[in-house]
Design goal:
Blueprint: H1 3-18, E1 20-22, H2 23-30, H3 34-46, E2 50-53, E3 56-59, H4 65-73, H5 76-87, E4 95-98, H6 102-110, E5 118-121, H7 124-130, E6 137-139, E7 144-145, E8 152-153, H8 157-162, E9 166-171, E10 175-176, E11 181-184, H9 187-198, E12 200-206, E13 218-222, E14 228-231, H10 237-246, E15 249-252
Parallel strand pairs: 4-5, 4-9, 5-6, 9-12, 12-14, 14-15
Antiparallel strand pairs: 1-3, 2-3, 7-8, 10-11, 11-13
Helix pairs in contact: 2-3, 5-6, 6-7
Length: 255
């Protein structure tokens, strides 16, 4: 494997984890010029592996099933602690929305100790867990099931969700970037979650600390659009300041 091939392989590994990289970061990380970084991105784009964005690149394909399976193992204990902390914020009998993803699956398992919940979700994995709650009401939209994570989508999924009112919306994201924007890597997910956020009295963002500093492809909103952040470790000083400025209540699981 020559030097360029090794560099591009490492670049793809970075993108699988962080979803975005700038030309300047490529140049610094791999000790190359920005012109070389730009050529790497162009070659990877021609191979169908990345999509060029202004000043950088993101992955060109949806998340790989193998990556998602790895995420279920990665930080699994932290996600269980986050799930336990989130459900302390949910009252029996509440109407709630639950997002898709491995952290929200951990939340759903922790919710089985509650009573009388009324739940809307577009995740079949979450719905399957919650169906074990004897007195729960669980609603899911119709549509096509995304194999990678059990998400259910069709064009009117946001419209379906917008017909409900929620005491609490529990959401997760692919990243909280340095600007304080929260986002995901799929337009359909973002549209569904935005519909739920508009109908919720309280919005809880549940993420493990690996999401801090990550840039997602599609902007979901900003920190001012959520009310509470539940995570497994304290954010850095810059993010703490942004959370405080936005009036977000912070809960660190296990503290």
């Amino acid at each position: 494997m020559d030097k360029k091939t090794r560099r591009q392989h490492s670049l793809m590994q970075h993108l699988e984890q962080y979803r975005y990289i700038s030309l300047e970061e490529i140049a610094t990380r791999f000790s190359v010029t920005t012109q070389t970084a730009r050529r790497d991105i162009q070659e990877l784009e021609m191979a169908g592996k990345v999509r060029r964005l202004h000043g950088g690149a993101t992955v060109a394909h949806p998340i790989d099933p193998g990556v998602l399976r790895a995420r279920r193992v990665e930080n699994a204990e932290a996600k269980e602690r986050i799930g336990a902390a989130v459900v302390e914020r949910v009252k029996d009998g509440s109407a709630i929305f639950i997002d898709t993803g491995t952290t929200c699956e951990a939340v759903s398992r922790a919710l089985l100790g509650h009573k009388g919940l009324r739940v809307v979700t577009y995740s079949l994995r979450v719905a399957t867990v919650l169906s074990e709650g004897a007195d729960f009401t669980v609603a899911v939209p119709g549509g096509f099931v995304r194999r990678v994570d059990g998400g259910v989508f069709r064009q009117d999924t946001p419209e379906f969700i917008s017909k409900f009112k929620f005491d609490t919306a529990i959401i997760s994201v692919s990243g909280i970037d340095s600007a304080g924007d929260i986002g995901d890597d799929d337009h359909a997910e973002v549209a569904a979650v935005q519909a739920a956020m508009k109908q919720a009295e309280t919005i809880i963002l549940a993420v493990d600390s690996s999401k801090f500093g990550r840039r997602a492809l599609v902007k979901l909103g900003g920190l001012a659009d959520i009310h509470e952040l539940v995570c497994d470790a304290l954010p850095d000083a810059d993010l703490l300041r942004k959370l405080n400025d936005a009036g977000v209540r912070l809960f660190v699981a296990g503290r």
